[in-house]
Amino acid sequence: MQQILKTLNERKTRGQKSLAVLIDPDKVDDLSSLTQLLLVAKECYVDFFFVGGSLITNNNLSQVVRTIKGNTEIPVVLFPGNTMQIDIQADAILFLSLISGRNPDLLIGQHVISAPILKGSSLEILPTGYMLVNSESTSAASYMSNTRPIPPDKDSVAACTAMAGEMLGLQLIYMDAGSGSKKTIPSRMISKVRKSVDLPLVIGGGINSAEKAKFALEAGADMIVVGNAIEKNPNLLIEVSEKIYDFNRSLNVH
Ligand code: 1GP
Questions:
Q1: Three-state secondary structure call for residue 218
Q2: How confident is the model over 198-221, as pLDDT tens digits?
Q3: Which of 100, 226, 240 is the pocket-test mutation for ligand 1 (most atoms within 8 Å of CB)?
Q4: Residue 247 CB: number of other CB atoms within 10 A?
Q5: Beta bridge partners of 129
Q6: Ligand 1 in contact with 91 (CB < 6 A)?
Q7: C-alpha–C-alpha distance, residues 134 and 139, integer Å
Q8: C-alpha of residue 20 to centroid of ligand 1, in Å
Q9: What is the rounded CA–CA span in Å between residue 81 and residue 141?
Q10: Domains of the chain, first to last
Q11: What span, in angstroms and rounded, lies between the C-alpha atoms of 164 and 131?
């Protein structure tokens, strides 16, 4: 059953915002700091954990997923950098089609490889139009994907890309400035994409303050993803989740 997708669509209809915390297994050096973060997350309004990264050089994806599942009820969504980042203990997987790029392997190739494993699993599949937006063509995601991101001033390109993704049947649009990016996705571009498609819109990359989270939410993000900055400052999780809470409280749906 497409429970997460259903939830996201219902929330979008109500204008309710969601927060996803990204855990990059490559940056989890010791599980005690992860457990600490999970304690904070349980007290905050965290809706999802995204787990994944451009490159996982250690072997602890499975352990990270198990630790989250063992300590919280918050759903775990895989955000895989490649087909090796599949763990069936998770609840769902972003089945990413990198529609901002022109690398066939990331538009269909990796999907073919992972399809039989995913089909045989109980993971909820979330078909996602993934769009990299960045002025630096040297971000880890751009380099690893061998694609050029959409330039941040090309709002129409972003809107048409999202529209095409929607027409192809994708169920979510995820616009990402890249982990740790100095610049977030411009509000103007978020608004333009928001007006162009009816799908839930996920925004991430470089959100390192409550203020930036607020801008993305006001511009039309249904969900924001915060990773890098929380690794550096776990208190930020409290501040960002308060912004989500404020938004949702004004709708009377928190
Ligand atoms: C990166 O969108 C995610 O793919 C989150 O970005 O790590 O910069 O928060 P940050």
A1: helix
A2: 999 999 999 999 999 999 999 999
A3: 226
A4: 18
A5: 97, 173
A6: no
A7: 8
A8: 10
A9: 8
A10: 3-247 (3.20.20.390)
A11: 12
